[in-house]
Structure formats: structure tokens, C-alpha cells
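#lab-general

N.A. 3:47 PM
ok so I finally got the sequence cleaned up, no stray characters, all 394 residues accounted for. can someone with queue access submit it? mine expired

B.Y. 3:52 PM
send it over

N.A. 3:53 PM
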Amino acid sequence: MLGSGYLNPWAGANSTREVSRAISLSRRDFLRTATGAVAGSALFGSMAGRGMALPRSKKAIVVTFGGGARDDETFALDGQENIPHLLHDLMPRATFFSQVVNRGILGHYVATASLATGVYESFNNFAAVPPDFPTVFEYFRKDLKRPASDAWVIAPSNGFNRIGESGHRSYGAGMGAGVILPKRLLAAALPGGGGGGYDHLLRDNYESAVYSPAVGGHELEMQQLAEVLKLSVNDFAAHAKSLASPDELSVYIARQLMRHLAPSLLWITLHDIDIAHSGTFSLYLDGIKRSDRLCGELWSAIENDPEYAGKTTMFILPDFGRDSDISAGGNGFQHHRTGDPVSRTTWMMAMGPGVRQNVVVERPVESTDLVPTLGSLLGFNPHLSTGKPLTEVL
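B.Y. 4:20 PM
back already:
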């Protein structure tokens, strides 16, 4: 976690809570120096009602990072060059939660399912099962009577194909989000399912050599996507070849959805950072830089689209962190196996109409707080979630 330009403020900390708090304070101090951000608590006296006076958001876009980036490579002095868009373009517009704790299983599918349900799910990360608890998409569609075209997930791999709706008996079949698996769709669009210069876009899993499902596709699915996005199969394949990574493909599809369907709830999981499992530090840094750039592009797309501008709240957060360099049994940036505070303590950025700008919130919050916050913003009741709405963005 610690870089040469980053003092170790938790060297004497002896509990998970103390370490998490120290990480939060370090992020706060860095952001104040880099962006002039102020503490959220300082604003509540004079600005407590300001957010409520502005137009409430009617749309929400959630961007998660599959495989969190450590402070060493982001918020530390030596890492700031990797996140110029987050720091200089987005942070001045955002409320930043510096201490978001994930108390669940540190596997990407199960952790993303926990983010999407507001409950720490406990199923096997590598099992092809739906979440046990209702997802944010089901609450949104059922409570607000929204059509299937109004909620979408763009997921990084075949292992996420069940993320859109739960196995809960009161929700489930037919009530969730449409799930687009860009790699699967690309495989369906290619003759023979791959090759021809597309291999860098089709790698499906960075975490486990044991569980690495084949990236399959189905021609009908590709044709359906073409109809939804007004895009021919050949044009889709040709554009994909010009892209550097799967995350760029995901954001391309997200922008097509925004342009042609303008869904009110859009969830995008970026996954390039998880190339860290390969042990190549330069590729890990490339993933961070690309995720940073893509977040900037998404916000720019929101601001320049009349269907989204002025009525969209965007949330950006990692699913969890990565091991510190000093954790026994860890592999530093490469993995997230130890469950240490660096792996569990991450951050979240929120921006949009009524959200206070350039503010850092230091109090600890949890990953499960996202769904209740979305419920309060959009007007549905996620009654089985265990999280709490984040009042700082409401």
C-alpha cells in the first residue's frame, strides 16, 4: 500500500478499525492538498438543505472497478499521475467517501452481487448462480413499474451472466436488468468465435486458471443486440478491433445504450485492473489509467447528452481493494487474498445534481450502503438491503 511519497500513518495501528480510519485520513489529506477538497462535516451547518433544493436525479449510472487499485498507485503522491481524470475532472464535482468498508467475500462476482443487492452475499464466487437477495434492478423495476429496457448491466465476463436478477422468490425471473456480456457478444460476431486480432478482448478471467469459462456466444443474442443498439454485426466487430481492452468495449456498448435507449439505471463493471493477477505491474498501472480515462469519458457523455445532463447521479467505486505490500501471506498489488484492511477499505465518488462538490466524507460507510442510496435517489424501497442511505448525497 505504501509508496515512497506516502508516509505510513497506520504504522502503529493495531486494529482493523484503526487501520481503516488511518487509510481514510490519508486519502482525505491527499485530496485536500491535490484538489482543495473540504471535509463534509464542515458543510452541514451552512449547506444542510442545499442538495434538497436542487432538482432530484432521475437517472443513475454506477461504475465499479473489478479489482481495486491501491492508494500507492492512485491517491498517494506517487500515484496521482495515474488518475488525472478522477482527481482533476471529477473530484471537484463530487462528494468523496474516503472509508468504504467491504465486510464480505473478496471475489469479484460475489462482491459485485453484494454491491448490487445491498447485502453481503455468501455464495461461491465461481458458481454460476444468481444472487440470493433481490438486486437493485428488481427493486427499481418492480416498485416503479419500469420496463425491461430501463435497467441494464454491462458485465466483464461470462461469470457475471446471472448478476441482473436474483433467485429470490418475490422477485427473480423477468424482473431484473438486461445483462450484456461484451466478450460473449464479440465472440458471437466473429467467424469461428475468435482469433483474427481479437484475443486481447476475449480473455475472460484473470483471477483463476482453474475456473475460466470459455467465452461463448450465440448468434441470436448478437442479432438482438444489433437491433437494440442500431448497430450491424460487422460494424460492431470492426469497431471492437480498434479498441485496446475489454473495458473500452464495455464503455462503447454503454454509450450506445445511452444514445439509443437512455436507460434510467445503468451499471457498468470495469475489469481491466484485475490483470494485476498476472503479476505484471505495468499492465496493472495501464488498467488503472484506462479506468480513470473511461470514467472521465462517461461523465463527459452524461453532461453532453440531453437525456442525462442535469438529472443523472454517477457513482464510482471499486468492489474492494488489493493486498498491501506488508501483509503476511499477501502478494501486494497482485492479489486480494488476505482480507487485510487495505483489501477491505476502499472509496466511493458520487456526483450529479444536488450532490455537494469537492467534499470528502471521512466517516466509515459500507459497500452495502450503495443500494439504499440509489433507492432514495430514484424512489424505490430496497427493503431487504442491510445498508443505509448515504445522507451526504441525498
